[in-house]
Predict the 3D structure of the following.
Amino acid sequence: MAKNIKYFFFLITFISIGFWGNGQTAGNFKTVKNVRVSRAYGYLLSQQYSLNRIKEIFPALKQQVIISSSNFNVAFGNARVNMEEYLKGYLGESEFQKFIMDGKDAIRKMEEENPIGLEDANAYLLEIDKRAKGEIPNPILETLLHFQYLNTPSNEFSNGYTKVYSTKNHPKAKGLDMQFKVPLSWRSMEGDRPNVVQKFVTDYGDGLETVVLVVKDLGQDFTQDEFVKIFLEDGGKSFLPDGSNLISTDRTKFDQNEGFVIVFNQTRETLGIKVQMRVMMFYIVYKNKLINFSCGIGSPGSDIELQKRYSQLAPLFLSVGRSIVFNSQYK
């Protein structure tokens, strides 16, 4: 049995590499994201092909195949549809179909050399049930999650696909022991500037949305009451970057500590390219430290597109803020 179970996993790897090889014919297909998406899509395609073959070869397992497929599709069905649209956008319809057929042909040839036994089929169905619960290798899982929740990103968080980030012992955190949750599909990176503890980028690091955590030491006995007073004096305008347009300011608490949520628009230019930004910023003072979460959404398109994307992501940003825990106050 072990030999044939390994065969299934080899199929997954093979089809992914096959997709990539065919994809090189498209001009700008050879990028990190495109390779990653093609492999994740190949993972799904080879899985579906294998399930169909099990159903054909072992009719007694037909009901279990239907159940396992249904459970997986409930968890990741949107991912396949959205990845197809993404790949078609790069390859074009005809090249995409060739991409699919070449991959299926490779699987068929390998299957002729590696017949599937009943015991192997049952074991594979158990494997599919585990995948439906998120037991999928990195970065395929993160890629599937991004495309599964492409239009409803806050559901990734609410459905429990999160990871916990802690600032404990980070040299830029200045002794701050704080933790919070972020979606699994976000990629975390070390900050490359002073006071930037960590940054998180959507779409496993290839997205246009970023969350940046900044911690500054105020260097004095600065109370939360003083922080609130200063903030309220001008409605938070003094905390805005130059050239920003304030949209809203809300007073709130983060794990029992006073804070504010500011939303503003900003235009940023890099190498002659202007990008419209909508930023939701969390400001918190805790033990003489100013903590700033900058949740930014970029769009090279219209204001309407920016507003649409912001409407999708704002609930997710707020969920991240609500997950903040200052561990030292519970010790």
